[in-house]
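Collaborator request log, item 7. Partner lab (contact: R.S.) asked for a structural prediction of DUF2207 domain-containing protein to inform their binding assays.
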Amino acid sequence: MNLALIIVIVVAIVLAIVGGLNSALNWLLWVAIIAGLIALIVFLFRVISGNRRA
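Returned to partner:
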């Protein structure tokens, strides 16, 4: 194979992996934000309702 073709293929694979990781990290960031908001709502509900279970 031509060396330039191999370099282009390797660069394309690396960019695809980096793009996929970026997309996955972005998705995980949103999941973490939503989970944090749910935990905050549950915490506030327990504080307001006065549940003092340990």
